[in-house]
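Hi! If you just cloned this repository, the fastest way to understand the data is to look at a raw example. We've pasted two of them here, unedited. The first protein comes first, obviously.
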Amino acid sequence: MADFVNVIGGGLAGSEAAYFLANHGIKVKLYEKRPLVNSPAHNTSLFGELVCSNSLKSQALTNACGLLKEEIKHLDSLIIEAAQTSKIESGDSLDVDRDIFANYITSKIKSHKNIEIINEDVSVLNLNEKTIVCTGPLTSESLVEYISSLVGEKVFHFFDASAPIIKKESIDSSKVFTKSRYDHGEGKYINCPMNKEQYLSFYNELINAKKAHVHSFDTNYFEGCLPIEVIASRGVDTLRFGPLKPVGLENEGKSYYAVVQLRQDDLIGNFYNLLGFQTNLTYGEQKRVFSMIPGLENAKFVRYGTMHRNTFLYSPKMLDDFLRLKKFKNIYIGGQLNGVEGYVESAATGLLAAYYCFADIKKIPIKKLSFYTILGALVNYITHTGVNNFQPMNANFGIIYKASTTPKEEIINRSLTLINDFKKQFI
């Protein structure tokens, strides 16, 4: 009888899990509710759709997310493969054309002989079957309630937002300039400079703009991805030290009071997103307020920013070291549902869950991934840290054991050695 695994969810984590298992001879039933059930954040029914930014962050190994990307590249990551085929030149950052990226992943998944795609909104799990749940931050209420009742623990959430995208042809080129901060990289960012008067006018309209209704009495935000209006509400200069920081964006010897950056969103360069402008303003207010930015007076919006609820499990109480439910060892949790935050982090834990599931199926006696790696440290954090006050976590060097006293070069070399040693257990 063929080996068999259910993978629930066709986002980054689910795609990674399904593809790894399928490539290693495991039959996969991949469940995806789209397009049967619409999502408040998705725009397509493609696998691996990027719903917020089109950036996978830094490529530098001296950056924690950059090192994490290199780690999962060594583990044969599908999203890294897809990113390389859809890459937009943007300096140190790995930015992608989101359509090419998602279509690449979708093609790989749909054409694989070992993957059966089932469009269904799963609300109950078969506890006797190997299952990797990768339903992400937009997990349906019914499945959330089921998992919560199954393990006897409350499920939590925070609110996340995406930034608007505009047509390049609608930008007034006479008021903007193209440059990367400190001239790093290819200069693919369009910069909209502001003087003090322009900034203060924009700021005042922003903090008083009408917000879209959120169906919650306790609107919690993830600090790493705050809506721009929330950042602004913390003080008149918070934007100038955050997403509108002018430092390193001097042009022809001239410096500015604040600068709005636009990042290329597609390979051709027709569309640009407003960097750091995640928002919960109403569509009309986005058009009105963001059109106050110099150069964007006649901006044509192809997508407005939106806000959605991100659900996550209380993983230190619910998951073991191998990303399984402590009470139900056939059920693995990959991606943002387990409490990691970010595209790469989500994909990475989906991939790692598939490695662990494969080892269990094949009865391979393996050691868990070392917490001297970024991925291992992330899993160690979500399964052991903050039992009484757990919050989602991005990749960072602070979670690596003794990172503060270890040179970066040593951390990098040790990490990649440990990743390769981990992978050898499966050969």
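Ok, and the second one:
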Amino acid sequence: MEVKVIGAGLAGSEAAWQLANRGISVVLYEMKPKKMTPAHHSPDFAELVCSNSFRGDRLENAVGLLKEELRRCGSLILECAEKTRVEAGGCLAVDRGGFSRMVTEKIRSHPNIQVIEEEVTRIPQGPVIIATGPLTSDALSQAIGEYFGQTEYLHFFDAAAPLVTAESIDMELAWWQSRYDRGTPDYINCAMDKEQYEAFVRELASAQEAEVHGFEDKNVFEGCMPVEVMARRGMDTLRYGPLKPVGLIDPKTGREPYAVVQLRQDNAAKSVYNLVGFQTHLKFGEQKRVFSMIPALRDAEFVRYGVMHRNTFLQSPKLLDRYYADRRDPMVAFAGQMTGVEGYVESTASGYLAAVAMAAKVQGRQPPDFPKITAIGALGAYISDESIGHFQPMNVNFSIISPLERRVRKKAEKNLAIANRSLEWIDALTAKGI
């Protein structure tokens, strides 16, 4: 039996790998490099369009739990992320280019995977997993809409942060430290005093934006809120958001700064850093002008400016089951951000679950049970919950995972207990050979 996978992003690459490792022949379709979108820069698979961070790595954090579940389930994406990891304190961040190259090499060298570089413009007959992401081509978007009887998807906008060269950062005005000194000092911290910060916010709030068709502040996904949108919400919004100084001490003064911009390593060579939380859709010239007001970045060399793009997603609760399959045809499944999961790890999890379920179906078995006590299962339950009235993209969080049956007062202890319960279930599943 052959399964088609459409799209070689995080979800599609994970899906193809899981199917192939279960002895199933996979035909993986990817339109790059023949056709690229404005947000893509590389011909490699699993390209990280926005940040290079897979976020927190502690089990008391829901995304940390989700990553550990995927590790124990043999995730390709998590394996490659660990092998291309760069220093980022308590976060899992990767060498952007090295990560995508490794995924590409593993996929292309798998004997059960055939890669076809062409755009798919219609929904093929199942078994198929469609994982073309929020940047699905116009032709396939129209075909998916026609398939479901919808002319339009829901949509929101998200943005990417700019990158600067390490050598252009003024380290006389910056210092190395991770917040609360957790782990190693992996972040470059750029302080601003009250006067510098307020001047920066005023210029940021009034800076010229690039035109993005259909863009309005209310349509921005909160997890990728452009920094200029936050600036317009109030003078102190950024100081309580990505520029919060809490847990950081400027060694020159011995005090907590008024505001801090953090820079995170973006490649293994430590030659490029990204501005953490600085997603933006300002015009490129405005990005250079305004972000150079940060004292340590006054001479910054920008190797990539921030960009914004439109993300589209399905009204999944009405259309998909908890395995990301079409309720009408279980041999047609979807995966990735187009299903309404938000984030790299969440997209990977959707690709994983869609694939192991599809593998079971084509091999005549029941799909494995991932209940809501697991983070993987909770995401599948969220996107298929027909009781949701206003469906919006969702990052994994403990509120969508089944609560404990006993009361635990301290939040960290409660979250860790939820995580341990989940991992016991995952270990039992993997012991059965899912």
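That's it. A detail worth noticing about the second one: The longest strand covers residues 259-265.
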